[in-house]
Amino acid sequence: MLSVKGVSKSFDGFLAVNRVSFDVASGEILGLIGPNGSGKSTIFNLIAGTLRPSGGSIAFEGREIAGLPAHRICRMGLARTFQIPRPFRRLALRENVTLAAFYGGRDVGSRAEAEAHAVAALDLVGLPNDPHTMIDGLGAAQLKKLELARALATRPRLLLADESLGGLDHAEMERAADMLGRIRRDLGITIVWVEHIMGVLMRVVDRVIVLDHGETIFQGVPRDAANDARVAEVYLGRSH
Amino acid sequence: MRGGRDTRLLLYLPLAAAAAAPFFLSDYFQHMAVQIAIWSLVYTAWALMGRFRLTSLGHGAFLGVGAYVPTLLWNNYGVTPWLGIPLAMALAIALALIVGYPSSRQKVVGHYFALVTLALGQVVLLVIVAMRDVTGGSLGMTPHTVGHSWYALQLPNKAEFYAVALVAWLAGLVAWRYVERGMIRLALESIAEDEDAAESAGVDVLREKLKITAVSSGLTALGGALYAQYLMYLSPDAMSGVGISLQIVFAAIAGGMYNMLGPTIGAAFTILLTEGLRVLFGTHFVGAANTIYGALLVIFIIFMPRGIVGLAERILARPRVPPAPAAPEPAE
Ligand SMILES: Nc1ncnc2c1ncn2[C@@H]1O[C@H](COP(=O)(O)OP(=O)(O)O)[C@@H](O)[C@H]1O
Ligand SMILES: [Mg+2]
Question: Which of A111, A165, B184, B204 has the most CB atoms at less than 10 Å from its CB?
Fold first, then answer.
């Protein structure tokens, strides 16, 4: 479904992502882990079109998407969340999601249709679906959910979820992990899921890729990752 | 922000009465009213962009195109303004898109956007001055007069011209309402706040920006055309350049750029203020009037960024439920 081949990104000479390659199969949940600064969010920015790769190719459902504008990639069915939530505070909560449904979805002809998709997405993640709730009253966990709702409202086939657990307490983490599992199972959405800690993620993902300093150091099933020497080295003292 | 039905009636009835009143008043008041209507249109057009943080300091460019193109076509080729004005609007839109397309592509935002637009307004002024053979340069020009004529849109009868200006003003309000109620408002608010996040939500940032730029520049050109047709005299400084561009910004902000009627109130306020100061100080003391005018605008912009309408909303707003306590910051 997604094929990333030899993708690199340098910021003023600093190589944040170094020839990373991986494939995502339709229907799977792929975990992408690595310590802070290892290039996970940058990879998402490259796939989703927020940044242009310095090299390499990215194909989504057989079509080359590297360098396309982000809105076109979104409309093709590839949605992403931001690690640090980026809500539109000048819009109401539901308007945030309606916007994504209307502009980011395919075959959404009217505002009413977009509202319906928005309400469905808000219900799915467990946020209020009324038209009046504003962003300013929301807490950290709710803002994380808003990121998910906004992505889901575009009815993607592939979801890039960036640290959906960040800043959550343990119970919230478990619930968020379950939610990603449900999104895959009930909606049939393929997911690439980034976290900097292994923890809860390992329970839900089918496969995992470990990144360090912009390079892939491991690809395989979660069980093997736990026993891999290089992964242990990278995570020594850094996992919980 | 959006009041109930009764508050809306309270607002619209006096407004309709005020808009109709000049038909029954003297020439002097009709003259004020025409100016207020035309500038209301221009300020509303500017605020259609300004409210989304697209702060243009160069709307004088579109005003100038709107003023000069129909008059040049009329004087040189006898083209009726009924054709000349749409052509001028199209040209202003083309100009706006030619500048807007690369600026938006290069993500020219904030101060840089303001600077680019500032230059644009001044460039149009310089072009008008440079083409002095046809435009009369800084001395200005007058449309060839034919007496009262709807064909030439020369209406010495002020009430008739006021009717035309009212229709144009309403067109501005209709555009505002269309934006306010449409999905484009959500798109432009999201762009104003975070272009990358808007793109990721599927918003074609370039396209949406160009759309509102086209509407805004086209309506501004319409205002410029009507102003020229009304005054029957065009000069580069009154119709383009930095001075008039900044006047547009100040007046729209003073009235309130986040409300449909804010720019209209800004027009009424600034025009009546100018007139009041002129009457008060007479013609001997022009400097004092201008200084007071300038000082008042600065005070407005610093202390009332949401303008007169914003202040009125704050005073009229019923006491609200206090905002929820701030959420703890996520530990990233
Ligand atoms: N826009 C940017 N400009 C410059 N450096 C950046 C930018 N984005 C990320 N980086 C750098 O690239 C590296 C990888 O960052 P990031 O992808 O955010 O890591 P992760 O998500 O794995 O924590 C970091 O060293 C970061 O400082
Ligand atoms: Mg990150």
Answer: A165
A123 Cβ contact list (under 8 Å, min separation 6): A129
Restricting to B residues 191-210, those with a Cβ less than 8 Å away from any Cβ of A are: 192-194, 196-205
CA dihedral B172, B174, B176, B180 (to 10 degrees): 180
Q: How far is B193 from chain A (nearest CA, A)?
A: 6
B-chain residue closest to A105, CA distance = B202
- Rounded to the nearest integer, the mean pLDDT of chain A is 92
Number of domains in chain B: 1
Q: Tell me what ipTM this predicted complex has.
A: 0.92
Residue whose pair of structure tokens reads 């009465």 in the numeric block:
B17
Residue B229 lies in a domain: yes
Domain boundaries, chain A: 24-51+67-77+157-240, 87-155
Q: Is the minimum distance from the CB of A145 to ligand 1 under 6 angstroms?
A: no
CB contact under 8 A, A105 and B329: no
Whole-prediction pTM:
0.90
pLDDT at site B329 = 43
CB atoms near residue A191 (< 10 Å):
24
Q: How far apart (Å, rounded) are the C-alpha atoms in residues B153 and A158?
A: 59
- B214 within domain boundaries: yes
The answer to whether position B125 is within a domain reads yes
Ligand 1 pocket check for A36: Cβ under 6 Å:
yes
What 3-state class would DSSP assign to A49?
A: coil
- Tell me the pLDDT tens digit for each residue of A7-59: 999 999 899 999 999 999 999 999 999 999 999 999 999 999 999 999 999 99
Is the CB of residue A84 below 6 angstroms from any atom belonging to ligand 1?
A: no
Name the residue with tokens 């808003």: A146
CA distance B285 to B153: 36
- Using CB atoms, pick whichever of B194, B199, B329 lies closest to residue A88: B194
Helices (H), A23-169: 40-48, 70-75, 93-104, 111-125, 140-152
* Cα–Cα dist A26/B315, whole Å: 57
Nearest ligand to the CA atom of A10 = 1
Ranges under pLDDT 50 in chain B: 1-3, 322-332
Residues of A with CB under 8 A from a CB of B: 48-50, 69-71, 74-75, 79-80, 82-86, 88-91, 95-96, 98-100, 102-105, 111, 114, 136-140, 142-144, 150, 154, 166-167
Q: How far is the CA of B239 from the centre of ligand 2 (A)?
A: 51
Closest by Cβ to B186, choosing from A89, A98, A143: A98
Domain ranges, residue B198: 28-239
Helix axes of B205-231 and B27-50: crossing angle, nearest 10 degrees: 170
